[in-house]
Amino acid sequence: MNLLAHLKSADSSGGGESSGFGSDMISNKISMEKPTLAFSGEERYLTPLWVSRKADELYDPSQDGFELSAGNIIQEKMKTVLKMLVFREQQVLVQFWSPRVVGKHRLLTTIDQPFGLGVVNEGLCSYMRDSESKCYVADKDLDEEDLSPPTRVFRLGLPEWTSNVTNYLPKDFPQQECAIRCNLNGYLALPVFDLTTGSRVGVIELLTSSKHPSFAYEVQQFQRALKVLIFPFFFNWLKE
Fold first, then answer.
1. Its Gene Ontology molecular function terms (predicted)?
2. How is domain 17-238 classified at the architecture level of CATH?
3. Structural domain boundaries of the chain?
4. pTM: predicted TM-score of the whole model, two decimal places
5. pLDDT tens digits, residue range 172-216?
6. Is-contact 216 191, C-beta < 8 A?
């Protein structure tokens, strides 16, 4: 069974065309929402994100009295998180890997999940599209050698980062070739947990063109945004 094809088929639905900036590089069902939050202090000189918006999100079912599903609530929270972030450079991609159950397998996918771009260009959009073409099996009995960074972070509940994706062996970073082709070097992946249940709801992933020796600033950005939403991030590994 082709799990990715199954997943895409389950998610396929109608929708109008988008005229959003850069939509020709992304999808005719997705537009990019321009940054609107006003930042102060030094953050005024940093880079906020253009955040994805699907065409069918122009309609808000909650306005008609319908409750959002748990999955949709997480998506809305993650979009809010993305809008609160600012970065030290423009060439950044932030995307969310969400677990989905397909048949007997639990898969991590970015399909229909929010993402943010520091600038809308072909390199970042190309990596985002490549991610959508992948789905990683996150079953508990999966062999260690078959794991991707998002899968390892999701299963272990611990972060993973590097200043240069070439530090990975190709088998440990399946999208390494694509990242190099798109001029993406720095990498950070963080687990996201639900405070009420303690369960893992996904992995937030950052790629940058710069080879930052430390991602302390970016981690603080994610921590601040997720805490504001009472949508906690697992920080035990940060405690001294």
1. DNA-binding transcription factor activity
2. 2-Layer Sandwich (3.30)
3. 17-238
4. 0.81
5. 999 999 999 999 999 999 999 877 777 889 999 999 999 999 999
6. no
